[in-house]
Amino acid sequence: MSNHVYKTIELTGSSTKGIEDAVQKAIARSAETVHNMRWFEVTDIRGHLVDGKVDHWQVSLKLGFTLEP
Fold first, then answer.
1. Alpha carbon distance 66, 38 (integer Å)
2. Among 31, 64, 61, 36, which Cα is nearest to 46's?
3. Distance between CA 25 and CA 2 in Å, rounded?
4. Beta-carbon count within 10 A of 19 CB
5. Sites in the chain below the pLDDT cut of 50
């Protein structure tokens, strides 16, 4: 392993399709401005109910990336 320094940010993605889609949306949006992304860790999963059914999912995650040299 090289001598990287990592920074983490916290994100929350949401989706009406499912948990994985919420994660993918959060990462895809971050990729527009964050470079050198390396890993993520799901920290929380929530859902919103409407009329007793799942309306959408919310997934919070930590995203790790290396800092520029």
1. 7
2. 61
3. 29
4. 15
5. none
